[in-house]
Amino acid sequence: MGEKRDKIPGPKALRVINTMKKHAYDSTFMYSLVISHGHNCIIEDIDGNKYLDFTSNIGACPLGYSHPDIIETLAQYSSNGTYKIAGQDFYCQEHADLAEDISKILPSGFKTFFINSGAEAVENAIKIAYRKKGPLPGISCIGAFHGRTLGALSFTASRPVHKYNFPEFPSKRIKFCTRDDDPEIDAIEDLLKENKIAFIMTEIIQGEGGYNVASKKFVSNLRKFATRYGVPLILDEVQSGIGHTGKWWAFEHYNIRPDIMTSAKALQIGATAFDKKYEPATRSALSSTWGGGNRIDMAVGSKVIQVIKRDKLLENATKMGNMLRKGLSEMIGKKGIVDVRGLGLMIGVEFDTAHHRDKKLSDLFKHGLLTLGAGQKSMRIIPPLIITKEQIHQGLDIMHQVLMRN
Ligand SMILES: Cc1ncc(COP(=O)(O)O)c(C=O)c1O
Questions:
Q1: What is the atom index within ligand 1 of the atom nearest the CA of 119?
Q2: Of 253, 275, 310, at which residue does a domain stop?
Q3: Record keywords: Transferase included (predicted)?
């Protein structure tokens, strides 16, 4: 790692990529990386090339790879063929365990509904709000990403390619304010005064939108006016939740609580959590064959929560994140780096142009450091929570080498 590799993709990777190009939809693949396996914060490709992973697969692998506790959990299922069940029709131990484990880190009085993905967690959050308020417009933020299913997509507003030619649910947009002195910081009040609204939904750190961190006043305004006008506040923690910001949930940095919230990625499955006062009054209002039906994912999700607690990984995320942000901040104003921002181990680095950002991401990849793009011209960094001081320094060395040259 750190050395430039000229022979990427290797022959095995090329075969996989060519098969994919021929038979599968060419979606958002970013690098010619064909993952084989991983250890700790290192991912190895199918040809044996190693990468220091500063993405944790967009937060889905908070304990890195081949973590002994996860391997042990997986081993328990190696001879249990009943690993997928109709999880809203039949009970299982894993469902109860995960519901109990997550309830210990949720705001008090919350209940959970499990589902496949982040987008479905958002869909169900929206459904819970509509149940209470009726089919009124929902408010989301410019630059928001809430998933790609059609309901969630109506409130996603990050890239036009996600929405072209699709019908939309009624919605209204506000600016996602990152500064307390933003002139639009109070816009939410006028919207709520003048319209009947089903919900307000936002991320605390816009993920796909560029790792933009909400201002304190913006978030406290959303909370204050949502309460005043009786509109549920939905916080989307699909990317930021389960520890990446150094707290279980990003909203904890703001001393507020949502009415309804989502989780996924690091949790291994999607979850819609809600204050009991928003629980649908009728049974069957929420369901799905695989809602709470993937026993392995639920068992791993429980283990993720337990290991983060036991190994004090929230503290590690705060410490390592501060170290990384400090190192990166020294590059601001040099070689087209215009901003470094974030909370804990969710860090955005903004470049002067999209072209420059894309070139540097590709160079970092060739030097063995995995990062991803976000927003118009930012790089997103979200390493596993187990990352060590040595790995942070190793990553920073590669960044210096690649970003600080022309
Ligand atoms: C904040 C947020 N919400 C929702 C989603 C959608 O999650 P999924 O891709 O699991 O459907 C994402 C995915 O990146 C996300 O970052």
A1: 11
A2: 310
A3: yes
